[in-house]
Amino acid sequence: AAGQMLAEVSGAMVVGVPGAEVAAASTPSIRDGDRTGTILVVAATRNGTAWVTRLRRSDPDQDWRPVGTAELLEDPPDERFEVVVADAHLEPGWRAFFTASGIAIIDPIHSPCGFAGLLARSRDEVMPASWFVSNDPATLLPLYPREPEAVRLWKQRACR
Questions:
Q1: How many CA atoms lie within 13 A of 134 on its CB side?
Q2: What are the CA-CA distances from residue 143 to residues 71, 87, 132, 147 (Å)?
């Protein structure tokens, strides 16, 4: 909302950058080194489900970019990933699945520096298709993998 307001009064363009890409650009063990292939970023886990984004890069000098679209899954994907990026709230069943598969789980970092680096590198290129770009600030809305808990509770209370 604050970004939309600033864009509205300044006439600036609005850019929505997916959190999974910011995590990959901010987490040193993912961003740096010669790691390539496909990684899985897991977020918003609850009741056995998780919001997942697959990211890939073939060159260590490139940024990680989405493969397909993010999705809400009930079970861990039965695929091979270089690493899984997930915080301490990762569902225990998911954690056990990845650990048993020999896939390392790395805690994500979401930093302003990682975000700024993505923006700086995209300045000289065409912005990635996964970024939502708009000249109308009102059209950019956050993407929630599931209904926010406050909204769910409000509806539950209002239906009584």
A1: 13
A2: 11, 19, 11, 10
| Residues 45, 94 contacting (CB under 8 angstroms) | yes
- Number of alpha carbons in the 13 Å side-chain half-sphere of residue 54: 15
On average, the pLDDT of the chain sits at: 87
Q: How far apart, in Å, are the Cα atoms of 50 and each of 24, 58, 86, 144?
A: 18, 26, 10, 12
In this predicted structure, the answer to whether residue 77 has a pLDDT above a threshold of 70 is yes
State pTM to two decimals.
0.82
Q: What whole-number distance in Å separates Cα of residue 23 and Cα of residue 30?
A: 9
pLDDT band at 160 (very low <50, low <70, confident <90, very high): low
Residue 136, both tokens: 């109308």
DSSP the chain: -HHHHHHHHHT--EEE--HHHHHHHH-HHHHSTT--EEEEEEEEEETTEEEEEEEEESSTTSPPEESS--EEESS---S--SEEE--TTS-HHHHHHHHHTT-EEE-----HHHHHHHHHHHHTSPPPTTSEEES-GGG-----SS--HHHHHHHHHHT-
